[in-house]
Predict the 3D structure of the following.
Amino acid sequence: MELDRPLPQPITPEARPYWDGLKQGKLVLPRCGACGHVFFYPRVICPACGGRDVGWVEASGRGRLHAFAIAHQSINRAMKVPTPYVLALVELEEGPRMMGNLVNVAPDPARIRCDMPVRVVFSRLTDEVTLPLWEPAS
Amino acid sequence: MKELRNAACIVGVDESDELGVLPGKSQLSLHLEAVANAVRDAGLAVKDVDGIFTAGQHSPALLGEALGVTPRYIDGTSVGGCSFIIMVEHAVQALHHGLCDVAVISHGESGRSGVGVTRARDTALSGQYEIPYGFGAAPTWFSLITTRHMHEHGTTLEDWAQVAVSTRAWAGLNPRAMHRTPITVADVLASRPVVWPFNLLNICLVTDAGAAVVLTRPDRARDCRKPPVWVRGTGEATEHVSLTQMKRLTRSEATRLSGQRAFAMAGVGPGDFDHVMLYDAFTSGPPIMLESLGLAEPGEGVRFFADGEGTPGGRLPINTNGGGLSYTHTGMYGIFPILEAVRQLRGECGARQVPGARLSLVNGMGGMLSAAGTLVLSREP
């Protein structure tokens, strides 16, 4: 089946636990062993304290829509999700923010508002890759 | 930093021979034309140049080679479109310490026609965490900042449209501007939707052009062809690259810090300017920059456009060249606001001249308000 969106690439070694978690239907985030700071994106040093002992923690999958936009055209030709679709910046319950799409909602600015509660849905693209997307949580 | 106040002057500025849609010109040609024109504007010769500063796809080494110059000082700082503004600070430092005597900051970009353009860079972060969702061009990111501002401050699509209308009015007075026909708020709201809340007229042009700025120390500036423009204050800062790492979307920390540093060095406050140049890749940019710099209260930046303060005849003219929205925008626009500020302070701007302009603020962003450079430029030391 033809993919409707660009695959994440390149998957970098330090992010492997994140992608492996998604494959199992879990959203896991980097967590600093020294100060407990939970952050995103995965990296080998804690951006809060500089600690090098980075572990992983499973996220609740709940958050709020921090900001959004509605794409009426796809500038990247590999993005074949039919327009209009919702670009999302989600603030997770654990603190960090990540990009995604808001799905299962009408792509209408009158129906979407910043800070609305959202929850993760897992979208399996291939055997190797599952993406976290977001839907309204009532 | 105060010892660097007025340590150097801008003595030459110019664009490439043409700007707009130039499929017949390489990026290197755009650079070389701009450098030759700016050096001539200064009354100097290319062989006088011994400091080369550039960002983008060409290294300072290539520029030196092509110009036939062996520079004593080079800088290739590349943090987005404001890199050229930040390079003014770097050039002032190098000139002050005698590391070079004549500094040239150069930009050449075939942003529209793509002549000789390559796109090789590390996309591991955006490739994993942003591109798969349809992000991947500036409007997809800057729109997030914009909707958050609307949520926090109640700004509207009409407010942003006023920025495009005001900037187009200035472009109508600039013969070098690409689009000069007046537009209305209704025109902006009726233009093609790209990424809500942006329609086409909320988004900058994409053009081909070059531009260059020449600096030297005050002793040498006396021998130049035109009156010097004094670099009273400079500031630079970066906060993030990805918007997921930006602490507060509606107030740029990089913009705020770069402004604070430049104002302190110059000994001025945010209310002291009579001309302002801001990097307008999108209509929501200038109001948020005014707020981050302290020229407007949070949420109030749009008033400069709606109330006519920033428009022709207003108290604080903003983006008098017609901006990235209507004059030119190659991709890394940051050098062009410097050109306009220098020309305004020299009194060279004809129909769009700000009467008695003496103190100009230049602020630009790199990326999505990620990096910033601020300049305080003055007619008098």
Remarks:
- Chain A has two domains: 9-58, 60-138.
